[in-house]
Amino acid sequence: MNIKEELIKILNQTHTAPFLFIGSGFTRRYLGLPTYLELSQEAGKYASDKKYYFKSLSSKARQHVDSKDNLIAPEIAQLMKDEIDYNFYEQERYHPLIEKHPDVFGETADDNIALSPPITTFFSKLYSKISQFTKGKKNS
């Protein structure tokens, strides 16, 4: 039995619709999007202007988790979020953003919103790349 026949046999044995899971390698390869670690490095630019900031966070993160685990990147992100949350309103470079969006960053805003600038920037770039990718496919 070939793979197509085997797949049809498996799909006929269930009453639910199949779905295809595409891992992060797909968006990395075809859209050129960053890995989780690269996205964390990009977000780090919003947390600090220090040259070796991300390397410093990596060292701190390794003190909290086993470097063999796949938990180093989430730990770096958590450390960064904690610093952004703490420093966001004190850094003058963010004041124009805070003043432009008081509904998001003002006194009554959700305290968990501080990572919005890097996330917003990332999704803007993502949308742009996806738009370019889909336009290219429609025209071909």
Provide a short characterization of the protein structure.
The chain is mainly α.
Commentary on this structure:
- The chain is an all-alpha fold.
- The chain has one domain.
- It is about 65% helix and about 0% strand.
- The protein contains eight helices and no strands.
- It has helices at about 5-10, 25-30, 35-45, 55-65, 70-85, 95-100, 100-105, 115-140.
- Helix 3 (about 35-45) crosses helix 8.
- About 10% of the residues are buried.
- Name the poorly predicted regions: none
- State the share of residues found in helices, binned by percent: 55-70%
Number of distinct beta strands:
0
Main beta sheet strand tally, sense and closure: none
Structural class: mainly alpha
Using only C-alpha atoms, the radius of gyration works out to 21 Å
Order of helices and strands: HHHHHHHH
Number of domains: 1
Question: How does the overall form come out from the CA principal axes?
Answer: elongated
DSSP helical segment count: 8
Percent of residues in beta strands: under 5%
Mean pLDDT: 75
End-to-end gap: 36 Å
Distinctive features:
single chain, 140 residues, mainly alpha
Write the topology of this structure:
Layout: H1 3-12, H2 24-31, H3 36-47, H4 53-64, H5 72-87, H6 95-100, H7 102-105, H8 116-139
Helix pairs in contact: 3-5, 3-8, 4-5
